[in-house]
């Protein structure tokens, strides 16, 4: 069997959340309808955003609750990414801060999904 090539997040407002992720990752929205959007991420990974009220079969989960990780090669790259995020107006909910696993900051999507940008500790 092939490896997964897409990730789907349940959201309240697909257009608003698609705009957020498209800006966050500088990635194109390649498909959009009233209740669904698809964003093409690096390496062929597709990020689907599905209006939770339209998901078949109805999920037992709510929106939010997922953390996406973006690994960068150095603290300087994290600082550069943070500056870019701040320039775009995306609110930073944590950091920058050094934690056990590395240097990081965290942003939150309109639906409460988290995006952690970090460089691993060089221990």
Folded structure, characterized:
This protein is an alpha/beta fold and 123 residues long. It is 20% helix and 39% strand. It has helices at residues 14-25, 75-87; strands at 6-11, 29-32, 36-40, 46-51, 67-71, 92-99, 102-108, 114-120. It has a four-stranded mixed β-sheet with strand order 1-4-3-2, with helices on one face. A four-stranded mixed β-sheet has the order 5-8-7-6, with helices on one face.
Number of strands: 8
Radius of gyration: 15 Å
What's the tally of helices? 2
Largest beta-sheet details: 4 strands, mixed
Per the principal axes of the C-alpha atoms, what is the gross shape?
Answer: globular
Order of helices and strands: EHEEEEHEEE
Strand numbers in spatial order across the main sheet: 1-4-3-2
The portion of residues forming beta strands comes to: 35-45%
Mean pLDDT: 92
The unreliable regions are none
Helical/strand content category: alpha/beta
What is the CA–CA distance across the termini?
36 Å
Helix content class:
10-25%
Descriptive terms for the model:
123 residues, alpha/beta, four-stranded mixed β-sheet, 2 helices, 39% strand, globular
Helix-strand blueprint:
Layout lengths: L5 E6 L2 H12 L3 E4 L3 E5 L5 E6 L15 E5 L3 H13 L4 E8 L2 E7 L5 E7 L3
Parallel strand pairs: 1-4, 5-8
Antiparallel strand pairs: 2-3, 3-4, 6-7, 7-8
TL;DR?
This protein is of the alpha/beta class.
């Amino acid at each position: 069997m092939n490896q997964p090539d897409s990730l789907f997040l349940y959201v309240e407002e697909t257009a608003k959340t698609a705009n957020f992720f498209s800006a966050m990752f500088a990635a194109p929205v390649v498909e959009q309808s009233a209740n669904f959007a698809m964003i093409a991420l690096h390496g062929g990974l597709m990020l689907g955003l599905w209006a939770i009220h339209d998901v078949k079969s109805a999920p037992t989960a709510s929106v939010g609750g997922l953390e996406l990780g973006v690994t960068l090669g150095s603290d300087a790259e994290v600082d550069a990414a943070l500056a870019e995020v701040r320039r775009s107006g995306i609110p930073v909910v944590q950091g920058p801060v050094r934690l056990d696993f590395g240097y990081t900051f965290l942003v939150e999507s309109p639906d409460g999904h988290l995006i952690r940008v970090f460089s691993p500790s060089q221990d």
